[in-house]
Amino acid sequence: MRLQTEKRENSPIFADKPTVRTQGYGVKYFCHKYNYEQQREKMPIDFHTHILPGIDDGSRNVEMSLRMLAAQREQQVDEIVATPHFYAQKDSVEEFLLRRQRSYEKLKTAMEENGFDQKLYLAAEVYYFQGIGSAGMIPKLCVEGTQTLLLEMPFAQWDSAIYADVEKLVRHQKLKVVLAHIERYYEFQKKKEIWDAVMELPLYRQMNAGVFLNWKKRHKAFQLAKEATTIILGSDCHNMDTRHPNLAEGRIVLVKKFGEAFIQRTDCLTREVLQ
Fold this sequence. Notes:
Blueprint: E1 20-23, E2 27-30, E3 45-49, H1 62-74, E4 79-82, E5 85-86, H2 93-114, E6 119-122, E7 125-127, E8 148-152, H3 160-172, E9 176-179, H4 192-199, E10 204-208, H5 218-228, E11 232-234, H6 247-258, H7 260-273
Parallel strand pairs: 3-4, 4-6, 5-7, 7-8, 8-9, 9-10, 10-11
Antiparallel strand pairs: 1-2
Helix pairs in contact: 3-4, 6-7
């Protein structure tokens, strides 16, 4: 399968300062004055995506995945963590990993055919289940080659059992736990004691870029980002319509709000958890 996209060499990249442009799929993107090959490590990483085709509620097929990759490329996002949903109630780890590998191989072949050279990290967005803290198979769902786990928490009031499970993941299993899109849970936490206790654990907080583009939600999102001091940013992209790749747009808003140093810390932290 071949997709008609603009090649990287023709991209109007590398202005003296971060700029906003609109091109191709209408996605704004964030550029820096760097030689691409030499400065890849300074490019932003999208830590949370559903870009693998046909595995969850994200990309439906390879063609959609290529369009999502093209949008990422326009934003100068060259490293992408693929985090398809994992639900222990519906899937076994072994079956999930097999399906993920098949999906990845299909996409990788299409990427090579179409000249996409972005780096993909295989991972999962693991939904919390009771007893997860003691589950021996959980490390298999970390970002490949790391001890980093993207954990999706319940969209309900957290309790002491949930706290205990997360603590076990961090302290007993020695995992680098990244809480997915923390801004989506806060409204459910009427009793803030457990929330505060979880946030005090030595873990990482991921936020979705899109929340900083939402006028109704951004005020609280800014507060959460400020309290965290440093966050990990992801687009949580699922498609090219309602939940498209928008990492660059979120980064621009954060730079305007908190300054370049905030984004630099975000980038450093993201690379740290991928080690």
